[in-house]
Amino acid sequence: MRLVKYLLHFFVLCLVQADEHDHMYNYGEEVVLWVNTVGPYHNRQETYAFFSLPYCRGTKASISHYHETLGERLLGVELEFSGLPISFQVNSPKTVYCTMHLSDEGAEQFENAVAHHYWYQMFMDDLPIWGVVGEKVVDNNGNPTFKIFTHKRFQIGFNGQQIVDVNLTSENLVNVEAFSEVPLTYEVEWIPSQIPFSSRFDKYLDASFFQHRIHWFSLFNAFMMVIFLVGLVSLILMRTLRKDYARYEKDRELDELERDFGDEYGWKQIHGDVFRPPAHQLLFASLVGTGCHVFVVVLVVVAVSMLGELYMQRGSILGTIIFAYAALSPVNGYAGGSLYARFGGRRWIRQMFLGASLLPVYVCSMAVLVNFVAIYYHATRAIPFTTMLEVISICIFVILPLSLVGTVLGRNLSGHASYPCRVNAVPRPIPEKKCYMEPLSLVLVGGLLPFGSIFIEVYFIFTSFWAYKIYYVYGFMLLVCVLLAIVTMCVTAVCCYVLLNAEDYRWRWTSFFVGASTAFYVYLYAVYYFFYKTKMYGFFQTIFYFGYTSIFCVALGIMCVLLVVSRSFVLLNIAPTSSCRDLFCGQFLTQCRRVGFLSFPSGGRLYEVSSGVSSLPGTC
Hints:
single chain, alpha+beta, five-stranded antiparallel beta sheet, five-stranded mixed beta sheet, 12 strands, EMP70, transmembrane, signal, transmembrane helix
């Protein structure tokens, strides 16, 4: 019984021990200070292990850290114990915790770090801390002297049993000299604070930057653009199409022999080709399915980020994106499989594999390319081999089966085509048209307005990812996504109408590239941002920037593809319905009567009759 009692007491003590998971500490309990990475200030993603510089460790025994999430491993988080003994609410005076013995190589490393403005990152109770390695001092003669900070002063704010604030001050500059001994010191001061635990991350959120009046003005600008485009599309649908219908109805009321069918022009002339399956229909259906998948994932992740404040946890946003993409894979299979079935495609298994692997293969290929560069530079951004196997396993054992389920459901539930017009057996020749009606011109012009509605938000997103900002205004992002969807669909409706008026029925791929052109302009803006808004340099950071920016732009372009194709399909189902019912069937019946053929309801056979029986009931 006594042994059981001791074990019970030990178990209770283990439960009340504080750590960085429950964020509750008792007086005198250990507070762990983790060191993460070090690297050039202007190259945020070029990071190396903290102890790659010849820093010495503290005297306390080392504590191992395991990656808690997949997002941490992919982001290159490498937490190591600093070795500094820190106790909750216990002040520590200035104390030497180790002494560095600088060799010639070590001094050269520190000089290079100071010359390139190296900074380092630490974590205490999940709160990030940043510090600078040293400073370069230039004397009156222009000779540089490299100095490093050797003293760290921590001011830690606490509210009850919780840590709510951490500040680091680097002091005591010392010259970097080879074969010298440099003692490293630290001190800790605990300060009572009234900051609630739920608001301790507010100091890292730059409200003056993200909630600037320019941000609000960009939303207002995009909203006014939406009103203009919705009015323009309404004008096309309500006035232009109505005039077309009135003209065709007037022609219909004329005597059959007085009609001049050669004078008809415009979008009604291609009713038999407008729903023709596009070239490379397997690829097209896979891209549309992937676009639908990405769009749903973006909405889910933004909604979860608004409710859960994911920016407080390391790698949580990236982990949420991966989980949402894998869990929502049936959306990809359903959208792509149903569209491919409506096209009449028979290789649905190949389409399922292509749709499920299209975006993951591109992302993994780009990540592998960047990973080779990171391994060469010995950077922490190098993804471990086991992590890569984990991602591949998710693609094979989660995404593929769920995509198969979605494809089967899509083919059976909505895989039957119900077009308002019958597709001609022989494609209609496409006439020559003016240069501004060519698909290439429409593609180049069509992406400008959607890009204009989001480029301010793109600036804030780029600044938060490539600079030292934490993006937290996901409500803005949700509004921008909605405005982007409306603007893109309206622009596509206009481009589609212009293309069809030129009697060009290649609207599917044209709509595809109209949406993708928005991502093209975003990538051009990324090039401008790299050269004029940042001070990035070096081969590693350049490859990392343009590689992962291309992933962002490809995902954005594929998402816009869903919007433009769905909008074009809805528009074309509205416009040709009455066209086929009122105009073309009447024209076909008239032509049948002219040549002396009528189709009777009995058996669906054609009988040759004289022109005198043209009043007999016929069907189109």
